[in-house]
């Protein structure tokens, strides 16, 4: 049953030095026009009822409160739904947070990245550590009781002690959930250029592994469950929307460059505004790429994604049992309550293990 909706907001004040997500600079009129088209796109689909809605970006918090309301007014949302928006510190104040809480947004994902001011500058972020903490406190005061913080580690020249300092600050805030991603050096970004020029260098593998192990053990000490490779939560605060991705469930994705999964179709929307608008003006879905999955593709996706869920793992069909047993023998998987899950060693080499299923 399709009950998840992802809405992409492709605008940022400025591009961060490491990021290759689809986002552009914009003005108010551009954003209003974009929301008009999002609403038209929603109307091209059947009227589903959503149990999770996720505004991702880009920087969705750049939208006016009225525009967010216009979108929410257009969709059916179940009464117990999780409705998340990604916010950047600096783009939101208390009044905005209070307004969006009142119209049904009940979960925030705040893009912190690090609390280290020098590193924030290197990353090209607009905010400093105090502004990040202030945004978090404003969110609490505005009535949000489900907040996730987004961080990164393995940043240029970052030390284990600096990661530890980020964790100390993170745990002192007690968010219900946090994500922490190891930096990916994306081609085409300023970071990648500086890497090629020898100005920046990739963190040594052993140090990165030490950082990740430290994050996992410290999170446990503070009562967080490590439920997905990069995601941690207090009991019962797993991200419901993102969990649907990992469970290989269907979801509708709308907006520029958004991807979705309906029936046996995985699709990606147009990535240029002109084409996106043009398709919608002509009453056709603004889809750029389609991948129709057969049974084998669906199985591969579900094993690759399912293993990311560290507690649940996977129940492989007959054709994949031998692959799982082989990975178990090598110490990358283990059996738990009839499921195969990543072992401690498997978590450290997760990317390599997951691609074994492709
Ligand atoms: C699409 S961003 C949206 C959040 C919001 N725009 C922000 O940056 O505050 C989602 C998260 O992906 C992570 N991310 C983006 N680029 C990354 C990269 N190159 N390597 C690792 N993580 C990255 C960051 O932690 C970011 O918060
Ligand atoms: S990290 Fe977030 S704020 Fe920075 S450019 Fe990417 S999407 Fe925009």
TrEMBL record:
Residues 1-225 form the Radical SAM core domain. It is found in: Cytoplasm. Pfam families: Radical_SAM. One of its GO terms (cellular component) is cytoplasm. SMART domains: Elp3. One of its GO terms (biological process) is porphyrin-containing compound biosynthetic process. Keywords: 4Fe-4S, Chaperone, Cytoplasm, Heme, Iron, Iron-sulfur, Metal-binding, S-adenosyl-L-methionine. InterPro entries: Aldolase_TIM (IPR013785), Coproporphyrinogen-III_oxidase (IPR034505), Elp3/MiaA/NifB-like_rSAM (IPR006638), HemW-like (IPR004559), rSAM (IPR007197), rSAM_sf (IPR058240). GO terms for molecular function: 4 iron, 4 sulfur cluster binding; coproporphyrinogen oxidase activity; metal ion binding. SUPFAM superfamilies: Radical SAM enzymes. Belongs to the anaerobic coproporphyrinogen-III oxidase family. HemW subfamily. Probably acts as a heme chaperone, transferring heme to an unknown acceptor. Binds one molecule of heme per monomer, possibly covalently. Binds 1 [4Fe-4S] cluster. The cluster is coordinated with 3 cysteines and an exchangeable S-adenosyl-L-methionine. This is Heme chaperone HemW. It comes from Fusobacterium hominis. The lineage of its organism: Bacteria, Fusobacteriati, Fusobacteriota, Fusobacteriia, Fusobacteriales.
């Amino acid at each position: 049953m399709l009950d998840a909706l992802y809405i992409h907001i492709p605008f940022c004040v400025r591009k961060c030095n490491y990021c290759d997500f689809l986002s552009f600079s914009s003005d108010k009129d551009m954003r209003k026009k974009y929301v008009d088209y999002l609403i038209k796109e929603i109307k091209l689909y059947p009227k589903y009822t959503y149990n999770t809605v996720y505004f991702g970006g880009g920087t969705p918090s750049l939208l006016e409160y009225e525009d967010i309301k216009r979108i929410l007014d257009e969709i059916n949302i179940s009464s117990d739904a999780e409705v998340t928006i990604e916010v950047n510190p600096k783009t939101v104040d208390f009044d905005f947070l209070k307004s969006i809480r009142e119209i049904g947004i009940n979960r925030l994902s705040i893009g912190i990245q690090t609390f280290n001011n020098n590193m924030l500058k290197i990353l090209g972020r607009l905010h400093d550590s105090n502004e990040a903490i202030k945004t978090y406190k404003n969110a609490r005061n505005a009535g949000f009781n489900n907040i996730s913080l987004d961080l990164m580690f393995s940043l240029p020249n970052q030390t284990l002690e600096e990661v530890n300092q980020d964790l100390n600050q993170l745990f002192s805030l007690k968010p219900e959930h946090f994500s922490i991603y190891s930096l990916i050096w994306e081609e085409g970004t300023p970071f990648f250029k500086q890497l090629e020029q020898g100005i920046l260098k990739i963190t040594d593998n052993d140090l990165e592994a030490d950082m990740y192990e430290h994050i996992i053990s410290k999170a446990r000490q503070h009562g967080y469950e490590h439920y997905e490779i990069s995601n941690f939560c207090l009991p019962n605060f797993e991200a419901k929307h993102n969990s649907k991705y990992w469970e290989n469930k269907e979801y509708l994705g709308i907006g520029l460059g958004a991807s979705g999964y309906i029936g046996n179709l995985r699709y990606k929307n147009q990535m240029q505004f002109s084409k996106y608008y043009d398709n919608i003006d002509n009453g056709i879905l603004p889809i750029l790429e389609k991948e129709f999955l057969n049974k084998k593709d669906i199985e591969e996706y579900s094993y690759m994604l399912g293993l990311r869920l560290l507690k649940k793992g996977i129940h492989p069909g007959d054709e994949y049992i031998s692959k799982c047993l082989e990975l178990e023998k090598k110490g990358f998987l283990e059996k738990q309550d009839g499921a195969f899950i990543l072992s401690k060693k498997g978590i450290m080499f997760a990317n390599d293990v997951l691609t074994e299923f492709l």
